[in-house]
Specification:
The chain has 240 residues and is an alpha/beta fold. It has a single domain, classed as Rossmann fold (3-Layer(aba) Sandwich), CATH 3.40.50.720. Helix 1 packs parallel to helix 2 and helix 1 crosses helix 8. The protein is globular and about 50 Å long.
Length: 240
């Protein structure tokens, strides 16, 4: 069987590609950054593909490349678009980009695949699905919609034997996060998290691998939160 990872050039997507390469056949690593996809593909003996989830032909391009490798046993969607800006300043283009790259791209990707028997499709979600973080309206809305995509596809495709789930990470230390926040600020923030550290991409990949395994054969339409208790600690009031 084949595994397909969209966002395979990123921290979480790359970790997913590496763990799935151990259990599935060839891995198709998809990323809009061909160099990043190629680096991951070379590590796992897979195939790299450049494709942008924000384009209209994204699903058909990835689906065609996946069919050349064979039926898909596991598919992972690990990309999103995030802009931090107050809602009153958010542009229509930014909001649409979040929705297109997020739930629309995930749906078109999953729909375009040729699944193997018992296929597992996993979207990498976010705590933003249920937590309305300030200055993230587009990202919040996109992940709310992504959750409904996961649950609806799980409902409609159950009779086809396709399982559709989400893995919801907490704050994960990835190269992208280090670029965004800076190494020093990121390290300091990690000490304030419930576990005293950020999560690791490999911990998210382990959850994806579990959902792709026979042990999760009756799990579909679910969200597996892997956040080191972050979501349960958000109720704390400042200074209390």
């Amino acid at each position: 069987m084949t595994a397909v990872v969209v966002g395979g050039g990123g921290g979480i997507g790359g970790a997913c590609a590496r763990v799935l390469a151990e259990r599935h056949g060839p891995v198709l690593c998809v990323d809009r950054d061909l160099d990043a996809a190629t680096r991951t593909a070379s590590e796992v003996g897979g195939v790299a593909l450049a494709a942008d989830a924000g384009t209209a032909d994204f699903g058909s391009v990835v689906g065609a490349a996946a069919r050349e490798l064979g039926p898909v046993g596991c598919a992972v969607y690990a990309v999103a678009y995030e802009e931090h800006t107050p809602a009153v300043e958010l542009s229509r283009e930014s909001l649409l980009r979040s929705l297109t790259v997020g739930p629309v791209g995930a749906f078109e990707f999953f729909r375009a695949l040729t699944p193997a028997a018992g296929a597992s499709y996993v979207a990498i979600g976010s705590l933003h699905e249920t937590q309305p973080f300030a200055n993230c309206l587009g990202y919040n809305a996109a992940h709310g919609a992504l959750g409904q995509v996961v649950r609806t596809l799980a409902h409609e495709w159950a009779d086809r034997g396709i399982r559709v789930n989400a893995v919801v990470p907490g704050w994960i230390a990835t190269p992208g996060e280090e670029v965004f926040h800076g190494a020093g600020q990121l390290a300091a923030a990690g000490k304030l998290l419930p576990f005293g550290r950020h999560g690791r991409p490999e911990e998210i990949a382990a959850a994806v691998a579990f959902l792709a395994s026979e042990a999760a054969g009756y799990i579909s339409g679910s969200s597996l939160t892997v956040d080191g208790a972050l979501s349960t600690s958000l109720a704390r009031l400042r200074g209390v």
